[in-house]
Structure formats: C-alpha cells, structure tokens
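Help! Submission page says 'invalid entity' but I think these are all valid:
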Amino acid sequence: MSVDTQLFFNRDTIVNYSKKQGEPEWMLELRLKAFEQYSSLPMPKLEQTSIDNWNFSDVHPFVEESAADGLDSLPEEVRSLLSEEEEKSNIIVQKNASILFKELDAELKDKGVIFTDLTTALKEHPELLQKYFMSEAVKPDEHRLTALHAALWSGGMFLYIPQGVEVESPFQTLFWVEGSEIGIHPHVLVVAEANSHVNMVVNIMGGEGESKVVSNGLVEVFVGSGAQVRVATLHNLGAQAVESIYRRAVVDRDGHIEWIIGNLNYGDTVSDNKTKLQGQGGQADIKSITVGSGKQRYNVTSTVNHQGTYTDSEISERAVMKDKASSIINGITWIEKGASKANGQQAERVLMLSKDARGDANPILLIDENDVKAGHAASVGRIDQLQLYYLMSRGITRAEAEKLIIYGFLDPVLAEVPAESLRKRLIQLVERKLA
Amino acid sequence: MATSPKFKIEDLHVGIEGKEILKGINLEINGGEVHAIMGPNGTGKSTLASAIMGHPSYEVTKGHVYLDGEDILEMEVDERARKGLFLAMQYPSEISGVTNADFLRSAINARRGEGNEISIMRFMKQLDKTMEKLGMDESFASRYLNEGFSGGEKKRNEILQMMMLDPRIAILDEIDSGLDIDALKVVAEGVNSMRKPELGILIITHYQRLLNYIKPDYVHVIMQGRIVRSGGPELAERLEAEGYDWIKEELGIKDETVEQKA
C-alpha cells in the first residue's frame, strides 16, 4: 500500500493501542489480520457512485482526549443533541478515540442490562463480544472499509438487553470528531435477547471547522425472537468530513427492527443499511431522510433480505438536494427462495431544489420465491411550479411556500418517526441544513 | 377601518406561448359590487383570472391592473394576495404532506405579518365555524391540501379559503363546475354571506345557473378576448334563454373563440 498511509498509522500503532487498552489477544489478532488485508481488498461497489478516490485512510485513528466531568462540561452543541427530557439517562459520549462520559441507570444494571464502551465490554463480557463482534452481521474482510474499521475501531458502544426486559427511554450514544486529519471508527453493537424491547439513538457529529476528517462507522444489531428494537442514527458531520456508515441487523423469528436514519452531513457520505430477516415473521421498517447541500455526494442504500416465511418489510426514503449536491438513493428488497408469504414494500423519492442539484432513485426487487408480495415506487423531481403558484396565491412568500412543499415531501417519513423528542431533533437538523 | 376597494383592469393583453388570448380587457369593480363574466368556452375567461393572479404560464403583454391605485402586475403573486386579491381556482393544486389547517394558518399569518400571528385557538375556532357553514367534515382540516379531494370538495375548499382570508377582491373561476345543486347552494350561501362594501367580487362562469344563487350587479360577455357586451342581471337571463348566437350575429362573429381567427 502507499507509503503515505504509513505516516498516519502502521502495525505498531495498532499493537500499541490494543495493548494500552488491555485488549484480549483475539482482538489484537482480529485487528492485525484486518490491517494486513485492507489494502488488497476492494472498495465497496456502489450503485452509480465510485468512491475509489475518497480518502478513508490518511487520518490519525487513535487521537485521545481527556474524560469530561459530567455532561455539563460538554459543549452546548454536543449537549443539545442529547435528549434532556429523559429522566433516566443512559448516555455514552465519545470524542475522537476516547470515551468522555458514560452513564447507565442503576436500576437497569440490576436487571442485567449492559451499556458500556466496547473496550470495557471486552474485559467484562468477553464471551458476548467474541460471539457477536464482526462475526456474523458483518465480517472484517467484506471490503476495504470494513477491514479498515476492524483494524482501527476505538471506544464504541455495547448494549445488551436480557430476555424479556423492556426499556422505554432511549439509550443515547454520541460520537464526536474534532480536529484535522483525524479518523473515527464508531462501532455500535446491540444484542437484544428474546422478547426484549429497546430503542436507541446514535449521533455522529463534527464541527464545521474540521479539515480532512473521516468517520468509518459500523452498527451491528441482533434482534432476538419476539424482540423489538428501534435504532435511530443521526449524522451531522461537517463539510470537510467523509463518512461511511454500515448498519447491519439480523432479526430472528417475530423480531422487529426499526431503522430511522437522518443523513444530515455536510460532506461526502456512504450510508448503507441492511437487515436480514432470518426467522419466520420478522419485520423491518426503514425510514431515511437525506438532505444534501453544497457539493456533497450521497450514496444511500437500504436493503432488506427476506429469508424467513411471513417476513415483512417497508423501506421509505426521502432525499432533498439543494445547491450542487447529488444523491443516489437505492432500495433493495431481496426475497430468497423459501421465504414464502413475505411482503416487501419500498419507496424512494428525491426532490431537487436547484438546477445544479442531482438525484437518482433506484428501486431494486430481487425475488426468488413465487408466493410473495412486493411493491416499489420511486420518483425524482423538482418543486412543482404550479404548487408554488397556488400557495403564493394565498399570500405565502416564495421561501415559505417552498418550505411547506419540502416539509410536505418529507412528512410521510418524518410524521412516522415514533418518538416526539427524536422527531423534533430530526426536524431541527433538517431545518438547519435547509436554511 | 377597512375602506372600500377599487379594482381597475385597463387595456389588458395576455398571451400564452406567444399567442395572444386577451386583446384589451377593460373593467372596473368597486367594493360591494358583484360582476359576472360569461362567455362560451375558449374565449379567454379563465385566462383573465389567471393573468390577474400571476399564473406562471401567462404573459401580460400590455395593460395594467390596479388595486386601490397600485399596479398589481408589478408585484409577485404572494404580494398581490397580501394586498387583498383572491382567486378561487378552477383547478387547485394538490399538495401532499401539507395539511389544510397548516396551510390556511400560514396563509392567514402571511397576511397578518410577523409579530401579529393569529392564536391557534382563535384560528381553530374560526376554521371549525367556517367549515360547518360550508358543510365540510372536520376531518378536512387535517387532510393534506386538496389531495384526494373530489371536484366538489376542492371547490368548497377554495371558498373556505376565501372566507378565512377575507380578501378585498375575490375572483371565482368556474366555481360552479362539478358541483351538484345542493353543493352549489352551499357555496353560493358562503359567498353571499361575505357580500359587503369592503369586498368586490368577480364571478367567471359558463352557465347562468350560479347567478340564480349569487345575484350579480353587472354581467359582461367575453368573446374573442374582448368584452363585447355589458349589462345588468337581465343580460345573463337572456343568455340562458337564447344562448350566445344573437350576440355573435349582432357582432358578425363566426367563431367566438380565440383559437382560430374569425
């Protein structure tokens, strides 16, 4: 591989970091194997987007920060992202490679809930980590980005919900990157045992002033039989940041996963989520909102892989592109042989606000079973001039009328976001981007 | 308080895609008056309404339209509306994701201006009352704007907006098309309830039927892009009884539309 990369990290950097964290031998081996493989693995192949020239490796991966004295010491922009209305707060905050803050409600701890950073989890729950960490939902050698992630991850979050435990208030995790030539590799691992209920919010954010920042993140979710899991991921990185985020879920019999995705970065982004419905009657709901501005490029892919009978999925994606932004929005409903009575529906819609904005929507159905239902809808368009005229003819200004049309366009997804506080935050981030 | 509006159309010429449709319209409407413009299809009736409001497909090539002395053709569409102009459209747009109530409140607040927004309570009360008058189910408030509305529901919704926005000049473009007789009566009652010195009304219609329920003070006939006859309500009654042929004969017009040169 290129000599340049050696300036940022090499084998020794990884060994030193792993030793310093007191990681078990198997984790160091996993890191080193991925490190050796990454340069020879291909970049992921994306629909209509080549990311071969995007920089994911010329960054410092292990920039450490000192811990915070409680939430109040965090900057306002960070705190504002964390929901304050929750009385019992389950929060992890990571800046660059270090955990600044973590808190778990004691009552939940007594019920057997584990909510901690991955480094700590490696020490306290090695058997769970060895079983789930990049072993089934995603493997290090899937492509170059997963290998880089496996070699360079730091901090991270592990959430374990025992069988039958239901937790109302969301678990919140915030990954925050700051500085220049810095890479973060957020890793979120969720294991929800049978019949548990849990929901969580993951924020990945950075400031506007950063230069050459990379976030190469991975989310792995295991939904046990009859479990209900909601994962919201909100992305708000600056214009100089490049992000790839791979989210993977494996759903057992009658399990239900709901993804809520807010792609609100200012820089180039690959956003990919894939759910495998392996048990009978599993369900997946995917809602994504993408807002593009400046010259940023987005590639957003949502995939549901139906394996079990009577599985059900709905993908609903909306993208609004302004300035010279471009987005490729893909939906893939893949029903395997044997998944009879499966039902997969999807809709991707792109609204372009300027003449230089670009967008494409690709609904893809891959169906290898006869006795199923599948449907798709896609559209790419601009603001309708007659709608604008109609609203303005009632005295509403052009700017306000455009806003009504844009929010109307997003409404079918926004209105379905179940938690009030989450919906508000999502709207806030959308408003900031569209302003 | 509000004064009586003065509305004046002066030598208005309007084209679409380079073809001239209106060829010099002159008309004056004062507060308290109801004018009706009648005429066969294709003569330019709806073009007049759309051009006054500022529809993007129409181009005004000559003339002026004054509201209270200001030329509204110089203004953006939204500014015209905020000056008190209202057009009940023949084909209102459907806007997904925007509820009727949110839209109406935005429109009312746009006219009231920042810092003077209507309270939600007052707005909802007024909306409920007006919808009841028009025989509209309360579910219409939370439905997306015109989406999936029947033709008649759209027309009622236009009149609802007119009643809520309380304009100074209201133009009703073929508000009777697609309405059954009961709906027509309800809509006409709504319009009649608004008649007052602070409002001037221009009704554009193909049929005399609507004018049985909203009595006009003046009736004008448009043909070939010009007003060719003006009179009182008796003119509408004669048109209903005898059709338009007698006017064509008097004027020596073979084809009354603007599509082909006579």
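Support: the input was valid. A stray whitespace character was the problem, and the output above is from the cleaned input. Residues 398-414 of chain A form the longest helix (17 residues).
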